[in-house]
Amino acid sequence: MINNNVLLVEDDSDIIVWIESYLEEFGYQVNSLDTVTDAISHIKQSHYDVVILDINLPDFLGYEVLKYIRENNIQLPVIVISAYSDQKTKIHAFKLGACDYMVKPLDLEELEARISVHLRKKKSNTTLLNIFSIEDNQILFKNKPLRLTKIEYDLLKTLIINKNSVIEREKLCEALSSISSERSLDYHIRNIRIKIEENSAHPQYLITEYGIGYKLII
User: Fold this and answer.
1) Model confidence band, residue 47 (pLDDT cutoffs 50, 70, 90)
2) Is the overall model pTM greater than 0.70, yes or no?
3) Scanning 1, 52, 73, 177, which has its CA 20 to 30 A from the CA of 27?
4) What are phi and psi of 29, to 5 degrees?
5) CA angle at residue 91 from 215 to 83, to 5 degrees?
6) What is each CA distance from 56 to 11, 79, 80, 99, 104, in whole angstroms?
7) pLDDT at position 133, please?
8) Rg (CA), the chain
9) Partners of 168 in the β-ladder
10) CA distance readout (Å), 34 to 17, 82, 112, 144
11) What is the 3-state secondary structure (H, E, C) of the chain?
């Protein structure tokens, strides 16, 4: 496989050695840092293909790394690894731009599989620029106008504006007065997928974050 550069931000030396040893067997180049300050400095100066990020770090919370990446519009997938399993913490990480979340103790085989998935998505996204655009109250998909109902248009527009971030189901329902229930939200999401996905049963763009909401990956 082509070497991919992984930035591991973790302060537990045992976990660092464990993850490094496993991923390097698959050809990944792993650079490990233990503070938010160093992580942001290296992201500024070096190229990485994916970040594995702990939340509890010695200087600041790992959220600051997510904020920096989002505020600077850096296309860099971040997988959060944390001992926190509560929904509130997961939602906060997703809102700040995390693409994935795994609870410790980790299954390294699963971690490598998730890294591989996000790297494929990143490669696909970089080859398709301007997948979605909004022009004159119309949404274009790969430069072709989509035929959408008013509700579908409003939903997809909200997802495009908040691209790559998870939007909670409740907020999507609140944003659309014509939607009376979460069940009807699922119905409209399903119809949108039929119009934009090659295989709506295995979506590439409009992703479900189970128990939380939806996000549009661009």
Assistant:
1) confident
2) no
3) 73
4) -95, 115
5) 130
6) 8, 14, 11, 18, 12
7) 84
8) 18
9) 213
10) 13, 14, 20, 46
11) CCCCEEEEECCCHHHHHHHHHHHHHCCCEEEEECCHHHHHHHHHHCCCCEEEEECECCCCECHHHHHHHHHCCCCCCEEEEECCCCHHHHHHHHHCCCCEEEECCCCHHHHHHHHHHHHHHHHHHHHCCCCEEEECCEEEECCEECCCCHHHHHHHHHHHHCCCCCEEHHHHHHHCCCCCCHHHHHHHHHHHHHHHCCCCCCCCCEEEECCCEEEECC
> What is the mean predicted confidence (pLDDT) over 193-206?
92
Cβ 28 vs Cβ 1: under 8 Å? no
Long-range contacts of 102-105 (CB under 8 A, 24+ apart): 104/15
Output the average pLDDT for the chain.
Answer: 89
Q: Which residue has the tokens 């106008």?
A: 145
Place of tokens 């939380």: 212
Tokens for 115? 């890294």
Domains of the chain from N-terminus onward: 5-127 (3.40.50.2300), 132-216 (1.10.10.10)
- Alpha carbon distance 73, 76 (integer Å): 9
User: Strand 213-216 and strand 206-209: pairing?
Assistant: antiparallel
CB 29 within 8 A of CB 50: no
